[in-house]
Structure formats: C-alpha cells, structure tokens
Design a protein that fits this description.
This protein has eleven helices and six strands. It is of the alpha/beta class. The protein has a six-stranded mixed β-sheet with strand order 3-2-1-4-5-6, sandwiched between helices.
Length: about 300
C-alpha cells in the first residue's frame, strides 16, 4: 500500500496504527505527549486525523510505542509521506476554515477518495445530494446553534459535495437509501423539495447513483443518519463511518460499529422498494411534492 496510498487513506492508516499501538502499550495520550515532549493537543490531533505527522516525528514515536519491525516502520513512514502529498482542495478554501467541524473535513476528504459510498437518511435527502435551497432550509432549522454565516456556508458546501462526486473520474459507486417520509417532508416549502427531488431524479437518470426508498411499512427500525465510505475494497476494515445527529457529527473507525451499521444498511436496502419503482416515485414526488396521492397503493412493488 505505502507510497501508493491516497492522502486521506494514508493519514487514516498512520493514525490508526499509532492509536492501536498506544492502546496495546497501555499509555494514555498524556503519557505519550510527555514522553515525546509534545503538547497533549498535538497527540490528540494526530490520533483524530486533524493533522498529519512528519516522518521525523513518526520514527521516534513508533519506537516509543514498540513498533520496531523495519518493514512495518517503513510502510508507515511512506504512508505518512503520502498523507502530506495532497494538493489544496476546494474544502481548504479560507472561507470554509471555521465553518467545517473536524469530522466534516475528514469526511469530505474521504468522500473525495472513496470507491464505494452508502448513505442512509431517515428524515432528509442525504447531504451530498441536496440542492442549495433545500440544504439552506434544512440548516436553517438550527438557528441559535449555527450562525447565519455557518448556515449559508454549510448549504454551499453540500452543493459543492454533490458537484464534486458527480464530476469525479472515475466516479465512486454511490448508493442512497432514504426513508419514504423524505419524499413528503417540505424543507423550504414545496418548491425547494420539488427542486431537490428533481435533482435526485436527474442523477438517477444519468446513472451515477442508485437509490431505494425505505418504506414506512418496513419491519426494520431505521438507524440514524450515516454514511459508510469504503476507501479501497468493499471491506469493513477499509471503511469509515460518518454519523450526524443534530449539529453533532463524528468519524467512527471502530470495526464492530462499522460492521453493525453495514448489516443494518443491508437489511434496510433489501427490504426497500426496488430502484425502478423508487425512481418512479421520486420523479412523481418531484412534480407534485408532498401531494397526498403520489402513487397507487402497490407497496409490495420491488421492480
């Protein structure tokens, strides 16, 4: 892997190796900071993935943590170098500096490298599929928790994410699963909902996403809103989980929690309305958003 790692994947590889080695050694982050004569915040930011670590810092740290196998050390050194090779990206723009949470920034960098992405949204269209008017309306619900500037910028960022994923070459495999209620919930009014659903319908028609509707009749309780991003193979060991709840978000690397979310996503996907019928219902809802009778009562359809 080493020198061929993409930057975000390489950074994740290094920070997980450091975190796992520290846990095996039984050291706290404070103990590592004291031993390395670093600040505690530096250790915390390296382990969280907020910052990269230089090869000169990594070598003595690995030695302190008990990683001395030459092949493993060199592999991690090459990964650390790869993590620093990333060119300035659109989300590095100065106007976004204080508007992105650390987890959101990491998620967007993973999104730019993911080969497969699975999303589930229980109440809104997934963030990376939202139009600006719809995203603005969704974020406006957090007045008091977010400033006007944060609300506007987060809406802009969601639109930028949609364009970035659409324009990637090669594109990742994108799968969106959202609750049936999403077709009826009028964030920003009927016009904003219609525009957002029309954009989803167009993306389906263009063939760059697969979408299913999780019906209200499903026996499976929906998980909260989350994205699973696979950075190489579609294996949980190469996946990261991004979760959102209200204005709080987090990146999860724990393999057990990732596997649990993937199992839940698969159950809901299999129990959902098939892609053809889901596409028809989304297109119908786009033309008549939140209408009482958008489709005939053929709930069992899985075309």
């Amino acid at each position: 892997m080493s020198s061929g790692d993409a930057p975000a994947a390489a950074r994740r590889k290094v920070r997980l190796a450091i975190k796992d080695a520290r846990s095996r050694k039984g050291d706290t982050q404070s103990q590592v900071a004291e031993a390395m004569e670093w600040s505690l915040s530096k250790v915390m930011r390296i382990e969280s993935g907020e910052v990269t670590i230089s090869a000169n810092d990594l070598r003595p740290l690995l030695s302190h943590l008990g990683i001395r196998d030459r092949e493993i050390v060199e592999d991690l050194i090459q990964a650390a170098k790869a993590s620093k090779r990333q060119r300035k990206q659109w989300w590095d723009d100065r106007r976004y500096q204080d508007m992105l949470t650390p987890a959101m920034r990491q998620m967007i960098s993973y999104e730019a490298e993911a080969t497969v992405m699975l999303s589930f949204a229980p109440a809104v269209i997934p963030g990376w599929l939202q139009t600006e008017a719809y995203a603005l309306a969704v974020n406006s619900g957090f007045v008091g928790d977010l400033t006007d500037a944060e609300i506007r910028t987060r809406a802009e960022i969601r639109t930028a994410r949609r364009h970035a994923l659409r324009d990637r070459d090669p594109r990742p495999k994108l799968f969106a699963l959202f609750d049936e209620s999403v077709l009826l919930r009028q964030y920003g009014g009927a016009e904003a909902l219609g525009e957002a659903l029309s954009a989803v319908s167009s993306a389906i028609a263009e063939g760059w996403i697969s979408v299913r509707i999780h019906p209200l009749s499903s026996p499976y309780p929906p998980f909260g809103q989350f994205d699973l991003l696979y950075l190489s193979s579609e294996d949980n060991s190469h996946a990261v989980l991004y979760r959102e709840s209200y204005t709080i978000d987090e990146i999860v690397d724990d393999s057990v929690r990732i596997a649990r979310h993937r199992e839940g996503w698969d159950r809901m996907w299999d129990a959902s309305i098939g892609e053809v019928e889901s596409a028809r219902r989304i297109a119908a809802a786009a033309k008549a958003p939140a209408a009482a009778d958008l489709w005939p009562a053929d709930e069992g359809s899985s075309a």
